[in-house]
Amino acid sequence: MMIEWPAMSLATGPGEVTNRTLRDSIRPGVNHYDPVFLDLFARTCDLLKQVFRTEHDVVILQGETVLGMEAAAACLIGPGDRVLNLVSGIFGKWFEQFITRNGGETIELAVPYDDAVDPQQVRDALRRHRDVKFLSVIHSETPSGTVNPIEEICGVAREFDVLTIVDTALGLGSHPFHTDAWGIDVAVAGPQKALGGVPGLCPTAISPRAWEVMERHPRPVRESYLSLLDWREAWVRHRGFPYTPSVSLVYALESVLAQVLEVGLDRYIGRHATIGRACRAGIRAMGLQIWPAREAIACNAVTAVKVPAGVDASRLVTHMRDRYGVKISGGYKELAGKLFRLGHMGPTAHPAYLAALLAVLERSLLDVGHRVTLGAGVGGALAALEDWA
Ligand SMILES: *Cc1c(COP(=O)(O)O)cnc(C)c1O
Questions:
Q1: Are the CB atoms for 187 and 238 separated by under 8 Å?
Q2: Of 88, 91, 195, 345, best ligand 1 pocket probe by most atoms within 8 Å of the beta carbon
Q3: Residue at a domain's end among 262, 277, 294
Q4: What is the atom index within ligand 1 of the atom nearest the CA of 13?
């Protein structure tokens, strides 16, 4: 039997794309050295600079966001380099492996996975460890729906002249992100989360300081899929490519970036903030609790919800998909069974999707034996939508 496509993809990304993104993804096949593609790639980089709010270089790595994190670690971290790794969730912990693999030494500053890192603790850690060279941090932890105070954290790193590596896969487009003004050295993103695009590329912003450190690396990473320096040499300096880029994925990326900027970056982020707030209000009105310890550290693009007593989270998630065609996400790794996650990003950061999502969630909770008043969550969310713009 054919499996039906979901009616709505409201998981933690990738998910729904606009009709315009679909249309723009299907442009004619073309050689990557054709002037039309060179022009499109250059335009995509310009749009990306606007979204990253940077005047410095951007590189579009031809793989998923994890490639960017591995590349940043491989190109920057040398043997014996000390890295302050901030861990507030699963992605933060993962980064330690990239540090270790490149001979770096990890100093971990960890908080529980429902919390965010306190900049004062970062300052204390950097005071204790004067020889730290890099700080790595996840802007928004998708697995737990939390957000770290990146502006303040990177400000502290600057005080100590420490280079920052920031994973903003989920954060870019859903929370303010000022690469240059906040002194971020390497920012790694993904088109498939809050930007509302498709997976497969890794937009990366790189500061002049970071380039210098890469050049001075004892064994600079070159002629490799992980090499940021290859991209600088090929694209930034000579408008060429180190290897064939994923042409059709670039079509899609150019389209989503243009759409974000047409809405207006601040307004686009504001929409995510409004929908995030309304979703959390809806969850509370339903009698459930959000997973993040405080409202102030909740992510705008993903709402993580504590699994209520007596409910089997994976059954709830499967039920929503099977009976109503609505795809949400459960928890994974150490968070499995403790939470489920609602995505509202890109085109789905919209009142219409939110109302449908909460309505189907209420019905599904009832179906799996949890008492809710149908309509309570939807009403609570709609009441919190005054500043939708
Ligand atoms: C999605 C995401 C990535 C990319 O990881 P995948 O699980 O391979 O999609 C990296 N970091 C963060 C914070 C993410 O949300």
A1: no
A2: 91
A3: 262
A4: 1
